[in-house]
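@channel sequence for tomorrow's demo:
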Amino acid sequence: MIAIVDDDKGASGALEKFVQSLGHNACTFGSAEEFLKSEKLHDILCLITDLQMPGLSGLDLQDRLIAEGHPIPVILGRVLINVAAMTAASGSAFGEAERTWTARRVRSVENDPSTLHATV
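structure tokens (generated this afternoon):
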């Protein structure tokens, strides 16, 4: 399962639909704190999180996961969330090009979770 953490419900919902369109299970969380308290934490293969959120940031969340023994591959960045929202809304050529890049990243994590620790 791929977890999406973002305080912007519209962005996380669009990204969730995008990830599901690639054939993956996804779940969303409104904050890093909510994610850390989740019973799904041990089922997560990859985490996509916004960098800037109230409370713990995306980098803080990654640090906390490592410190607590959960070395989940993490994709950090506002760009991915904006691209997913744009793709879901318009299917633009730019969005499609970025969608292909993102899909490749998601698939690489599925095949080998140790391969993706990306900051974009």
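heads up for whoever presents: The first strand starts at residue 2 and ends at 5.
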